[in-house]
Amino acid sequence: MTTYHISLEGDVLKVGFGATLAKGDQIVRDVAAQLDAMIASGELPSGSLIKINGRISVLVSQVLADKLSKLYNIIAVFDPKIGDRGLDRYVVTISNHPEYKVGDTLDIVRSPQQPSVKVVLCGFANTGKTCFRDGLKQALLQTPNAPESYFISGCPDGDGSWYGETARRDLDLAKKLKAEYKAGFTAEFAQLKAQEVRGINTSIFIFDVGGRISDKNRLIMAEATHAVILVKDECEIAPWQELCNSLGLQVVAIIYSDYEGVSDAISGETPILRGSVHRLQRGKDVSSRPMVQALVRVLVGLI
User: Which pTM does this prediction carry?
Assistant: First the structure.
């Protein structure tokens, strides 16, 4: 199985990491080899404009830029954070064309048939939402033929999607970077985050929110379509369920976070996935946990 997928659909180069996990050096070798083969076969012809859509690491972006800039006058990269309802927005990153400048944006009307679910992970503090979110991200990446997915943090605590991967390599560095990034939960932050959530329209979009029921979280969560509630105790379910209901969100899972547990338990899958996930610990890869895998199946089934 390949470490990276590349295919051309019209003038859009669709890219993304494969199910096979590999280090950066292997991935860039695979990317370079695939691009060379596509160029040699004529599958990737030269032209004026090419748009890139998909997950790109810094290393991969360098290879793509080197190869594609020799074939195309304009390269634009999809940015899911600055789109709008019904529009995909691409940012010009390389241009040798007089009518386009680096930083220009291209708005592409999204196909009305493209489904999109926006799932908020909610629950009180210290339930392991960040760790669970990271596990879902890795599990979806490793799921064959899974719909495109995108993950962000919806709270200002410094736990971006980068945190889990960094913590697995260097926990002290991850904590240091988190402390530097951490910001206050202001009304302005909530408004900007709600705008960001509104503009992202990948097939499966997942974000978590802070551990309080507040007007700021309500503003951000209102942009979701579905919800997963993570709790430490049965009594924590009702407040979050009431909030989700008031916002018209479909609750697809209610999960007990059992930090001292040694295994997951699934008590029901319909109409709501229910059960427990054990020991959501920072820096641990939980992508193979049965509850995480069960939720992936639920989310893929929504598309």
Answer: 0.75
